[in-house]
Amino acid sequence: MARRPLARVLRDGSAQIARSRELARSAADSATDVLHPLITITRGLHRLAGAGRRRWTDTPADRRGGLLFLAASVVLVVALLPYGPLLAVITLMAAAAWYGRDRAPATPAGPDESQVQRLTSLYEALVPYFSVAEDPSPLYAHGGDWEKAFDAFEFDGDGRISRLLVRYPAYFTDGEPAARARIEHLLHAKSGRGREYRFDWDEEGNELTVAVLPPLPTDITAQPFVTAPGEIVLGFTDPTGVRRTLPVRHGDGHRDEPPVVWRTGYRSTEPHLLVVGAPGSGTSTLLRSIALQALRHGDVLIVEGTGTGEFACLAGRAGVLAVACGPAGALTAFQWAADETERRLVAANQARQAGHPPPEDVTRPLYVLADRPSALGRLAADGQGEGDRDPLSLLQVPLRHGRAAGVTVVVADQYDSYDGTITVPDSVLPCTRARVVLGPVADRLAGVLGAAPSTTPAPRMPPGRGHARLGDGPVLRLQVPATPDPYDDATSDAHRQAVLALLPPRAAAPGGEGAADVEGPPTQEVRTARADRVPIETAAAEG
């Protein structure tokens, strides 16, 4: 059966509708131009009536009679004068036209002279990078029109560029990182230093968007964040980087901030975390923040490689299995973590084969936090530890099988001060797909995170400031919440009280005689599901 053609009205309907819309828009514009005086006078009459109403309301009740008599006298005199009503109407219309005029300041149609000079200078600087001699009609040429290259632009109060949309020719090699880096460096220098910029490359549309980023908030302190079990808030980032916000406490009020949430557990694609930073960049602060959040729904085992007591506030607390220091304590702690991982795997396998759910001591999350473990490896290499075994070699079992056993490993270390290389062994890097880099180490970000950030380095890096990348996701700016050591004399009282409020209660001593002393924690025992218990050395390494 042959198909019948559509009626002409249906085929040409869209064109007729578009033509009708154009005619209606033109008629509306013409009517607005013709009726503009009437609209102005009507607006003025409305404003005069409002002013009179406010004057009548503000007048005291005992004086309203005299005001009413004065108004009636004026109306009577105007009515008795020759041509009085006509003059009164003309005066009223003139006053209404004056009060009804548009008082909004006229916005400039385009950039001013200084802004044009800045845009022209930027355009001329891009000519050597966005032009070739073989182009018959180049978009960029010396003395060319910058309006064709810059589709949109914004300036801040200081007259510097805050947002810019740059068009570039299709033959520019925007897929090469080196070519992109040259353009980003030029735009950063010409738009004004001392600020952070984000560069968004649209390879399909041949457009580059340059935007100035506001500084990340540094006033967020440690607090109980609204998260699900297994979620750890690493810090906070830009609103455009994530699609989620969390309410955070700020002084006496609350506000919403976009967080960087790291998901751990059995179904996590990034079960382990690597934190790398320069000295004083806040790696220990991030580990303290992770420990306080993990203690809400799991157990924590801490290995401190420096022996400076950065985690003494957590020793003896409920849920903290141990705070181990020194090569001997670290070796024992990592050995226990490896044995515990194997035990959990065996127990879970046996429970599944028997058709039973895994026991509670297997499903409860276990977090192994290692701060500066490379220092322990160097001590072991120098023969100052027990044997020649590197404690980090024992982390292979939790790193490779911890996801199935509910064991999460967090390794925090620093860049070597001599050769500028990362001190974490290569055996740890493949297993830690969630990574954080803190401090002014912009030239090494791509080597650790696996990708270069789309932002420029910050001119000033406060403690806890850096970048984060979870798996194959984008590189995000990061600001770690302030979680200092509450026992440090330099810690402010507000930060100290915020951290102490999150600490769990003290755990009872093994003999039932009370809680362990936090200021000088004694030897803590690691709780296991087996009959024997493995002691962990929590005192600092001797010598």
TrEMBL record:
<keyword id="KW-0812">Transmembrane</keyword>
<feature type="transmembrane region" description="Helical">
    <location>
        <begin position="67"/>
        <end position="99"/>
    </location>
</feature>
<keyword id="KW-0472">Membrane</keyword>
<dbReference type="InterPro" id="IPR027417">
    <property type="entry name" value="P-loop_NTPase"/>
</dbReference>
<feature type="compositionally biased region" description="Low complexity">
    <location>
        <begin position="504"/>
        <end position="522"/>
    </location>
</feature>
<dbReference type="GO" id="GO:0003677">
    <property type="term" value="F:DNA binding"/>
</dbReference>
<dbReference type="GO" id="GO:0005524">
    <property type="term" value="F:ATP binding"/>
</dbReference>
<dbReference type="Pfam" id="PF01580">
    <property type="entry name" value="FtsK_SpoIIIE"/>
</dbReference>
<feature type="region of interest" description="Disordered">
    <location>
        <begin position="452"/>
        <end position="471"/>
    </location>
</feature>
<dbReference type="InterPro" id="IPR002543">
    <property type="entry name" value="FtsK_dom"/>
</dbReference>
<keyword id="KW-1133">Transmembrane helix</keyword>
<feature type="domain" description="FtsK">
    <location>
        <begin position="268"/>
        <end position="345"/>
    </location>
</feature>
<protein>
    <submittedName>
        <fullName>Membrane protein</fullName>
    </submittedName>
</protein>
<feature type="region of interest" description="Disordered">
    <location>
        <begin position="504"/>
        <end position="543"/>
    </location>
</feature>
